[in-house]
Design brief:
Layout (H helix, E strand, L loop, with lengths): L1 E3 L6 H8 L10 E2 H5 L2 H10 L4 E3 H18 L5 E11 L2 E11 L4 E8 L11 H15 L7 E8 L4 H5 L13 E6 L4 H18 L13 E2 L2 E5 L8 E3 L2 H11 L2 E5 L2 E2 H6 L7 H7 L7 E5 L1
Parallel strand pairs: 1-3, 2-5, 6-7
Antiparallel strand pairs: 4-5, 5-6, 7-8, 9-13, 10-11, 10-12, 12-14
C-alpha cells in the first residue's frame, strides 16, 4: 500500500507512519484481522500494491501507538505489549495484549478513541470479542485473567462539554479517561467465535461475500421532525407516516435523511476497489435532507 502526503505534512510525520512496526508474526490470522470484515481483508490482500492511504488518515493510529509505547513503561509488575500464538483446527492465530496485571488479574486493552465510542457504559461488540479472544490465547499459553476491561483515552473530550452534558445529546463522560468492564464469555463461546470467524475468512478467499450492514457501520434512513428555529430534530422516525403525524401535531416539517455507510465512506482503505461500495454510493453518498411539509 502506498503512503501519500497530499497536505505536505512534515517528512518526520510521514516517516514515523511509514515505519509502523506492527506484525502478526508467522500466524495466518491475528485477532484484529479475524474480527475485521472478511471482504475487506481479501480485497486488501488482492489489491495491496494499488491501494493508497494518506498521512492524514493515519495520524490517529500514530497517536494510539505512541500512547501504548508510553503506557508500556508503567507496567512494572504487568505483562505488557506481548504477542501470543495458538492453533485452532490447524490454523495459527496470534494476539497481542496491552497489559495483564499479574497482581490484580485484570486484562486491559487501551483505546485512544472518541467520546462517541464511550457514549454508553457498554463496550462495543468488537471490543468484547477482542478481549475474550485475547483471554483464550492467554489461557492456552498457561496464563489467565479474572477481569477484562477497556480503558479509553478520549482524544476529543471537552471539559466544557462535560460541564454542560445536557447539551451533548448523550451522557457525556465526566473525565477524559474512562474504563468499561467487559463481560467474560465461556470458553466454549469464545472457541465457537474463533471457528466462525476463521470459516468466514477462509470462505471469503473462495467466494467474496458482501459486507453486512453492521460491518459497514450502516445508518438507516430516518424521517426527522423539525420545528422552525430549532437546529436538531424533535424526533427521528423510521417511517414517514409516524413522522408526518408527529409533525402535524407540532406544526413542523419532516426532513428525509438518507442512510450512510460510515466505515465505507470514511474508514475503509479498499472502498475504491470494492464493487459493493461503488453500488451503494451511487445512491448513498452522504447525509442529505429533503423537506416534506406536514
Amino acid at each position: 500500500m502506498k503512503l501519500t502526503n497530499r497536505n505536505n505534512y512534515p517528512d518526520a510525520l510521514m516517516r514515523a507512519i511509514a515505519r509502523d512496526p506492527y506484525s502478526k508474526g508467522d500466524s495466518q490470522f491475528s485477532i484484529t484481522g479475524l474480527i475485521a470484515p472478511a471482504r475487506k481483508r481479501v480485497l486488501e490482500k488482492k489489491h495491496w500494491d494499488e491501494l493508497e492511504e494518506d498521512v492524514e488518515e493515519c495520524v490517529y493510529r500514530l497517536l494510539g501507538q505512541s500512547a501504548h509505547v508510553i503506557l508500556e513503561r508503567a507496567n512494572i509488575e504487568d505483562l505488557a505489549e506481548k504477542r501470543f500464538f495458538i492453533e485452532v483446527d490447524g490454523i495459527k492465530i496470534s494476539g497481542q495484549i496491552d497489559a495483564l496485571s499479574l497482581t490484580s488479574g485484570i486484562l486491559t486493552d487501551w483505546k485512544v478513541t472518541t467520546v462517541y465510542k464511550f457514549k454508553t457504559d457498554e463496550a462495543a461488540p468488537e471490543w468484547i470479542a477482542q478481549l475474550n479472544m485475547q483471554l483464550e490465547i492467554l489461557r492456552q499459553n498457561g496464563l489467565d485473567a479474572d477481569r477484562l476491561q477497556i480503558v479509553g483515552i478520549l482524544r476529543d473530550w471537552s471539559r466544557a462539554q462535560a460541564m454542560s452534558s445536557a447539551n451533548a445529546g448523550f451522557p457525556y463522560p465526566a473525565h477524559n479517561v474512562k474504563s468499561l468492564s467487559v463481560p467474560m464469555w465461556s470458553r466454549e463461546k469464545t472457541m465457537a467465535f474463533f471457528r466462525a470467524r476463521i470459516a468466514a475468512h477462509l470462505a471469503a478467499e473462495k467466494e467474496l461475500p458482501l459486507c453486512t450492514a453492521e460491518e459497514r457501520w450502516a445508518k438507516a434512513p430516518v424521517y426527522a421532525v423539525m420545528k422552525p428555529g430549532r437546529k436538531s430534530s424533535l424526533k427521528n422516525h423510521d417511517n414517514p407516516a409516524d413522522a408526518q403525524a408527529h409533525a402535524a401535531r407540532e406544526g413542523g416539517t419532516v426532513q428525509y435523511r438518507r442512510g450512510v455507510n460510515t466505515r465505507c465512506d470514511a474508514y475503509c482503505p479498499v472502498a475504491k476497489v470494492c464493487a459493493q461500495y461503488q453500488e451503494l454510493k451511487s445512491y448513498v453518498v452522504q447525509p442529505v435532507t429533503e423537506e416534506v411539509h406536514a
